[in-house]
Design goal:
alpha+beta; 4-stranded mixed sheet; 4-stranded antiparallel sheet; 23 helices
């Protein structure tokens, strides 16, 4: 989950770098105003959009996964930027997708999920389309849809479920399971839905149609799909949301968006965030025979909330019929059900929740699902077994322990939204504690006592996060995160003011980033180790990042993981070492400025970094002199 959030934040920063923000803002606002778009393909094929797409994809976890042609992003890095732009643009205007490579990954239930891996160039084309289509679609998407959308996540979806059950009194939940949703999307219907959203560029629609019909290669055989969107494609999540967006608005039309025939001025009052306060409208609707219903959807997993069992039964039947007749999607009778939250738990995104009476109010009680506990226990045990091995090289053991700690932090970060999380993680503890003590032999020093010096930034991060716990263990001096130490944190609902396609929304996002980015970036850095660098360098880089509080030591700007560069105060070529005292944390562009020698390069990075400012330039020059380079004199550059 952390990595997904980081990638979403990085995409916003990249859009700002490549001047796509103004274009996306315009597309969002025009779509909101009801404009019909007849020519989006020229924007899709623009140089800055292609460069942005390449930047967003090249650092992805799967960037080195090849398609059927065997090409990876490492191969593209050898090409000049202009050549990449030309190849992608030519492919957009003459789009003929190559086959999609079919692979399988394990699901939580033990079954296999099919993924389609497009070629690298096809991925870049899809990303180009995504960057232009997404702001247009975001203006038309429903507010209670949370999956695969910018600045929305699982916790917000769960928070809305809690709110509807606890505050609004919707205690009957309808689960409708769609059979093999991604494999059964009707291509013709999808293209009509895209047209209905105002995207009426025939060149773009032709490109999407060809992408949907790209051959699937498996075991040397190729088949042409007649329906479905390949999971693994860059554009597939957006297309899935377009399909089910119609469902969101149909459910909304049954109650929340129902038009009052005789509205009064008091019906149209607004909240602080600018959204319409529908309290008075709902009062009038309740006087009718309409059935109250709200939906919460994450991808193809959605819940419908009602107030009575009779309403729930009718709604379940109506929704199944609508999906079949309108979207040609079948539902599973075995998995579809109605739950009374007063009597039993409803499962959603790894959490099971119900309501119970506390005085005169209803409160939510939630746990990790049994399946989630079983899955996380197995995953943590696997990491712990590796961490407890007797390695001849202590640094290898340290890396194994870091991997275990990252897994524990990931479990705590995600499942802390369960109100009874402390009880749930205690179910994980006995098995893992027993595994640790059985696996460790006499040659490994297991202690509760904190060593005089912790090893590296990740160990410091874990210590600061869990220092109040009495369950911390140290293996050979390396800290082990306590799995049973986790407190509940209330998940927060999505705020409508947070929107990366408006200036005001981006201001809110940047405020949020400054609060959350430090720990998320440290988590990312701890997972990336350059095999060409020493262990000492990697550990001291993390320690220095912690000391700098995640900021560039010259500009003071908060850094993402890919922006972090580690500068040697005394260069290695001049006898400098990887010791902590010889390292500095800077932004990648500042690092390039420090080592720049030509006038053109210096001017370029002075502009990009804002280091013309006197205070910053003094620091840069001090570091350049230490590196054996001449200071930058602005008078000589003009």
């Amino acid at each position: 989950m952390r990595r997904k959030e980081m990638l979403k934040r990085n995409s916003l920063r990249h859009a700002e770098y490549y001047s796509m923000v103004e274009i996306q803002d315009r597309l969002f606002q025009e779509s909101k105003d009801g404009k019909v778009f007849k020519d989006l393909i020229s924007t899709i094929a623009s140089e800055q959009n292609i460069k942005l797409a390449y930047r967003n994809l090249k650092t992805n976890k799967g960037s080195n996964t090849a398609g059927v042609d065997g090409v990876t992003f490492e191969d593209l890095k050898q090409m000049p930027e202009e050549a990449i732009v030309k190849r992608v643009r030519d492919k957009i205007f003459n789009y003929q997708p190559k086959a999609v490579r079919r692979v399988y990954i394990p699901k939580a239930n033990g079954k296999l999920r099919p993924l389609g891996i497009p070629t690298v160039l096809d991925r870049i084309v899809q990303q180009c389309v995504l960057q232009v289509m997404e702001p247009v679609c975001e203006a038309k998407f429903h507010r209670y849809s949370y999956g695969f959308r910018p600045n929305r996540n699982c916790k917000q979806a769960v928070a809305m479920c809690y709110k509807l059950a606890q505050v609004s009194g919707f205690h009957y939940v309808v689960d409708v399971d769609i059979k093999g949703f991604f494999d059964n999307v009707n291509h013709g219907k999808l293209l009509k839905q895209i047209w209905a959203l105002g995207i009426q560029d025939k060149c773009l629609l032709s490109l999407i149609s060809k992408m949907l019909k790209a051959p699937i290669e498996e075991n040397g055989e190729r088949t042409i799909p007649t329906k479905g969107t390949p999971q693994g494609g860059v554009l597939s999540p957006l297309l899935a949301n377009i399909v089910l967006n119609e469902l969101d608005w149909w459910i909304d039309s049954q109650w929340a968006n129902m038009i009052v025939q005789k509205p009064s001025k008091s019906d149209y009052t607004y909240n602080r965030d600018g959204s319409l306060n529908k309290g008075n409208i709902y009062k009038k609707l309740r006087a009718s025979k309409l059935k109250e219903v709200f939906s919460v959807r994450y991808a193809d997993d959605f819940k419908l909330f009602c107030k009575t069992y009779d309403h729930a039964v009718r709604l379940k039947k109506a929704t199944e019929m609508w999906l079949s007749e309108r979207l040609q999607l079948e539902t599973s009778e075995e998995k579809s059900k109605i739950t009374n939250l007063k009597d039993g738990y409803s499962e959603f995104l790894g959490i099971q929740f119900k309501v119970y009476r506390k005085g005169k109010k209803w409160c939510v009680k939630s746990h990790m699902t049994d399946k989630a506990i079983k899955t996380q226990k197995a995953a943590l045990k696997q990491h712990l077994v590796k961490a407890c091995k007797d390695y001849e090289n202590a640094e290898i053991q340290h890396m194994a322990i870091i991997r275990y700690n990252q897994a524990v932090v990931g479990v705590h970060e995600y499942y802390s939204m369960a109100t009874m999380i402390n009880e749930d993680v205690h179910k994980l503890f006995p098995s893992l504690d027993r595994t640790m003590k059985v696996r460790l032999n006499t040659r490994c020093n297991l202690s509760r006592a904190k060593p005089p010096n912790l090893h590296g930034g990740m160990d410091l991060f874990i210590y600061e996060k869990y220092r109040k716990s009495k369950q911390i263990w140290y293996i050979n001096g390396y800290i082990l995160a306590p799995v049973a130490y986790c407190r509940h944190r209330n998940p927060m609902c999505h705020r409508s003011s947070i929107n990366q396609y408006t200036p005001e929304g981006r201001t809110e996002i940047h405020k949020m980033l400054s609060k959350e980015a430090y720990s998320a970036t440290l988590f990312e850095l701890s997972q990336s180790r350059n095999p060409e660098r020493s262990i000492e360098y990697c550990d001291n880089r993390l320690s220095r990042f912690v000391a700098a509080q995640g900021k560039c030591e010259i500009t003071g700007v908060m850094l993402t993981a890919e922006e972090v560069h580690c500068h040697h105060w005394k260069p290695v070529s001049l006898g400098g070492t990887d010791e902590y005292s010889n390292l500095r944390i800077v932004h990648e562009n500042v690092h390039r400025l420090i080592h720049a020698t030509t006038k053109e390069t210096i001017l370029k990075y002075l502009e990009l970094t804002g280091c013309k400012e006197k205070g910053r330039l003094v620091k840069v020059n001090k570091w350049r002199i230490a590196a054996g380079l001449k200071p930058i004199l602005l008078t000589e550059l003009n």
